[in-house]
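ok trying this again, last paste got cut off
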Amino acid sequence: MAKTHPLGFRVQPEVKEALEQAAKADMRSVSSLCEKILTEWLQERGFLAKP
């Protein structure tokens, strides 16, 4: 799937640091982890169809 729609937002420094640690532990980029977290949250609440 082509990623064609960038999304930018600001977070507190401690949130960014935690994201970086979590992404490293999961062997993925911060961007990839954010997409995973957002996708799962949207699916759980019925805003996005589960594959």
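PB: full thing came through this time. The helical segments are 13-25, 30-44.
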